[in-house]
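User: Predict the complex with S-adenosylmethionine.
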Amino acid sequence: MTATTIDEQRVQQCVERLFGAYVESMLVLMIDLANRTGLLDALAEAPGTSAEVADRAGLTERYTRECLGALVTGGLVEYDPAAERYTLPPEHALCLTGGGATNVAPVSRVPTLLAHYVADAATVVRDGGGIPYERFRPEFTTVMDGLSRATFDQHLVESILSAANGLTTDLHRGIRVADIGCGTGHSTVVLAREFPESVFVGYDLSDDALATGRAEAAEAGITNVRFENLDIARIPDDPPFHAIVGFDVIHDQANPAGVLRRVHRALVPGGVFLMMDIKASSRLENNIANPLGPLLYSVSTLHCMTVSLAQGGAGLGTVWGEELARQMLADAGFADVTVHEVPDDPLNQVYVARAATA
Ligand SMILES: C[S@@+](CC[C@H](N)C(=O)[O-])C[C@H]1O[C@@H](n2cnc3c(N)ncnc32)[C@H](O)[C@@H]1O
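Assistant: Here is the predicted structure with S-adenosylmethionine placed in the model:
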């Protein structure tokens, strides 16, 4: 047996790497806490002592000070020891507060949510199967809405739709559109409000999510949209749709190839499928340099892949990647596929897949 030589420097580097990861993971929990409680918003208003910030946010001073300690040592908040005052630099406020798409504080809810499922995952990793989608609701619905709402508000009409040539014009003229796996339906409502000549239907399996969409549409007085509880493996094709949009939904499916074929069948000739999905390669070796890689594979293990495997499905996973996505779209009948960036969104890209004209 040959003795393994241990490089002490690599051991040290590995320990540092691990503690770095553990520290960052705890900082994530504090970002989530500070975001949920309004601490970050209160600090963005103006610098202050822990008592002033706590007072502004309606929180207890002692917890506020401890949480601020984590945010200061984590490099997100500045601290003036002489005045005992805390400051959120304006650049950090842009990334951690407000209704814009640059506010990535809601992303912190993903690790805190998925941490609840590690014990269940340990069971399915050993025994096979998966954790069913219902186990993630209703919190998943809220978390997902927090991730995508600002992107839809700021970029859906201006950028994402314009990736598909002629679609905006058709929407102004009046066409039938389905939003598959619409979640809380904010994307559907944004589209219906912008294009009153067109009619929209949002499909999802989650009643709590659909109820949110119906309430938002009703509150805004929007009548050209409806929401329906339907498995998108059974999208109706009569009458067909002129456009189908699907935001972050295909890779979760039990039978993604079947859903893509069904989408193709439900479109008019020349109709367009606009699919927003994860920006990654299908090959692990191409994702090693992607700084978001650990997040993507972890979300897959603890949510996207497991919900598919729970149904005896394909378990495509979050990181099915562009190469496989293009192949599967082609196999489903889409001859013409282009891929586009989403502004302010390092996680997703948009595929524009067009059905052949008759
Ligand atoms: C990752 S979430 C995306 C939600 C929304 N499109 C967004 O971007 O915020 C996926 C959504 O698809 C829904 N979903 C998953 N599989 C489905 C199926 N087979 N039929 C209908 N909806 C489905 C889930 O309930 C969930 O709301």
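The radius of gyration is 23 Å.
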